[in-house]
Amino acid sequence: MTITAGRRLLLVHAHPDDESIGQGASMAKYVAEGAHVTLVTCTGGEEGEILVPELAHLASDQEDRLAEQRKVELANAMKALGVTDHRYLGGFGRYRDSGMAWHPDGHAVAADQVHDNAFWRADLTEAADHLVAVIREVRPQVLVTYDQFGGYGHPDHIQAHRVATYAAVLAGVPSYREDLGAPWTIAKTYWGAMSAERMREGLRKLRDAGDTTTFEGMDPDGPLPPFITPERLISARVDARDYLEAKLDALRAHATQITTDGPFFALSNNEGSLAFGVEFYRIATGTPGPLDEDGFETDLFAGL
Ligand SMILES: CC(=O)N[C@H]1[C@@H](O[C@@H]2[C@H](O)[C@H](O)[C@@H](O)[C@H](O)[C@H]2O)O[C@H](CO)[C@@H](O)[C@@H]1O
Ligand SMILES: [Zn+2]
User: Fold this and answer.
1) HAMAP family from the xrefs (predicted)?
2) Cα–Cα distance for residue pair 20/76, rounded to 1 Å
3) Is the ipTM reported for this complex over the cut 0.85?
4) Whose CA is nearest to atom 18 of ligand 1?
């Protein structure tokens, strides 16, 4: 059923939990403002760790049933954010979490180290075609995914970036796969970003609270990992502090992946809201809309 009315936002993520970590507050904000928000999750998260001891038996090297658990967790997170349109790329179970076994040269996992249907081994066109069908149905004005490094380099995140980027191009080609729907060109694409300034603020709060182990070795005033984005490269800053509680509820829903007594929650009290209720983006395609006094777009749909 083709969706044609109102503002429509599509997010493409690798695992259940990435959406809430990266853009949970923005998602809740846009839903509350009447936008249609669609999340496509590319894998079931089969290879994830399990922070809930009584669920350890679900692990990939035991019963291998973690994807079913994370599907429930993701549904609960969507309820917390108010998102009603969630899909798995190609359907639940089509692509498997590739795991984080890194290739010796530091790049993403070697193909012979993962399952046959691991997302890292997916045929790019086949995977993109699943997303073309969604794009041509939903007809989003805005797409959010990862940068070329997948944010922090996870192979599934890198592959999600590639699939989303390729699908956005293919969806707009009139003569391409007419069977997948009428062509649709997405007006603006953004990459989720981790702000260097907010990272430094968060580190300062952790160190001031006596936490020297979280992000061990990182100095609030020292060099940051390359995947943290300096403010000058950030183009949009969505202030969704009013939806921080929804984001925290969504994160709590991903109980096998995110511990509620970790630094994120430690920082997410009123003091931390600025750090986590404001979410950052880099524009990848399309024309930025009006900027605020700090030079940021404040709305992903600005200018449309
Ligand atoms: C946020 C994210 O992308 N999580 C991925 C990631 O999880 C990490 C992995 O389990 C690692 O072994 C842990 O040390 C780390 O704390 C986790 O964040 O990779 C998983 C396996 O591919 C994936 O399921 C999870 O969603
Ligand atoms: Zn992930």
Assistant:
1) MshB (MF_01696)
2) 11
3) yes
4) 257
Q: Which domains does the chain have, with CATH numbers?
A: 8-195+227-285 (3.40.50.10320)
Task: Give CA–CA dist 288/247, Å, rounded.
Answer: 26
Measure 101 CA to ligand 2 centroid, in angstroms: 14
Q: Residues 268-284: pLDDT tens digits?
A: 554 455 558 999 999 99
Model pTM greater than 0.90? yes
- List pLDDT tens digits, range 28-39: 999 999 999 999
**CA-nearest residue, atom 7 of ligand 1:** 48
Ligand 1 lined by 48 (C-beta under 6 Å): yes
Strands 236-239 and 278-285: what pairing? antiparallel
